[in-house]
Amino acid sequence: MTSREAASAEDERLVLEIVDSVEARRGATPRAAVILAGGIAAGKTRTAERVAEHLRDRGLSVGGILAPRRLEGGVTVGYNVVNLLTGEERGFAEPTPPGRPVGRFFVRPEALRFARAAVHRAAEECDVVFVDEVGRWELDGGGHAESVRELTASSAVAVLLVREAFVDDVIATFGLQGADVFRLAPRRPDRETGPVAETLWSMVDGIEFPLFVTLGSDGFPQSRPMDLVLREGRTLWFATSRASRKAQQIGEHPEVTVLFVDTDRFNYAAFHGIARLVEDPERRARLWHEEWRDDWPQGPEDPDYILVRVDGVRGHVLRGPGEESGEIDLVGT
After folding, report:
1. Which of 55, 131, 290, 318 is geometrically suited to a Cys-Cys bond with 325, CB 3.0 to 4.6 A?
2. b or e along 39-68 (b: 16 or more beta carbons within 10 Å of the residue's beta carbon)?
3. CATH 3.40.50.300: which residues of the chain?
């Protein structure tokens, strides 16, 4: 048996384990949920598609939503959303506005309504309901959060696709103690990206509050946790106070480091880049979050509210104690 055949056989065994878990949950009290966990491009959606196929073959009705990626030249350019009960499909997340920024994409409001309606109907009519995916937005009460709560209160078995970094928080937030969690091994990265880039972007997209490091006037680095508002390719966006020390330091020394640390796995990624303050009123309004109003009472028009743009120059990653490390040139990628 070749390594590819062995990997395929192992994948099929995992799919059947998930299917058996879903069937067992139908008779359990409480049902809790089945969670498919994995990193970016780990194959969660494709695995869920195969699980759904097996469940239908066993006579179960399947509904809910999956969000397959759209690829161009091996690069993710957006996500669709598919209603598993009807087969209808919509564009869900696009690389450009309008929409709510999530990571480096913008979720269309009409597509989110389509997704919510699909889960609502499936929770009433189906044996098994998928939601792809549950992450940072849902933990903050947005996105599919309402649908997940409705689903877990129904008689259907919930199958939730969750980024690995958010599994524990999803379980705690939605009361899913006792859920069966199936972790997908990372896929081998494409040659065009490579393991360093794969790890870098996985950590950037999975860690909400990195350390933002600037150079102080005394010559020593100064760091503070900051909320990563948006990633657009190799550009990171943050919000800050115009009067803050970091704003002054960026003006004097625009070379900064954004450090992403995963203490559970001893992984870290350093994003080195050039920072600048951005005045653009349209972008300030688009990236505004209402929970910031305590800091900026006048909202996006507050004169103290300003955006920080960091354009990547170089990335460095270290995976686990004694594991591989490397650098990637971000200029022009």
Report:
1. 318
2. bbbbbbbbbbbbbbebbeeeebebbbbbbb
3. 3-183
Band (pLDDT 50/70/90 cuts) for residue 233 is confident
pLDDT score for 32: 77
Q: In this structure, what is the dihedral angle of CA atoms 258, 260, 261, 265, given to the nearest 10 degrees?
A: -150
Percent of the chain, pLDDT > 70? Answer: 90
Does the pLDDT at position 257 exceed 70? yes
> Are the C-beta atoms of 17 and 182 separated by less than 8 Å?
yes
What span, in angstroms and rounded, lies between the C-alpha atoms of 51 and 55?
Answer: 6
**Protein fold of 194-329:** Pnp Oxidase; Chain A (2.30.110)
**Residues carrying CATH 2.30.110.10, the chain:** 194-329
Superfamily of domain 3-183: P-loop containing nucleotide triphosphate hydrolases (3.40.50.300)
What does pTM read for this prediction? 0.60
21-67: pLDDT as tens digits: 999 998 777 777 999 998 766 789 999 999 999 999 999 999 999 99
Q: Are 133 and 262 in contact (CB under 8 A)?
A: no
Which long-range CB contacts under 8 A does 147-152 form with residues at least 24 apart? 147/115, 147/116, 147/119, 147/120, 147/123, 148/174, 149/174, 150/119, 150/120, 150/123, 151/64, 151/119, 151/122, 151/123, 152/33, 152/176
User: Which of the 8 DSSP states describes residue 210?
Assistant: P
* Structure token digits, residue 291: 């929970």
- Which residue type does 138 have? E
| CA end-to-end span of the chain | 38
Cα–Cα distance measured from residue 333 to residue 328, given in angstroms and rounded to the nearest whole number: 9
**CA atoms of 99 and 111, how far apart (whole Å):** 10
Report the C-alpha gap between 76 and 277 in whole angstroms.
28
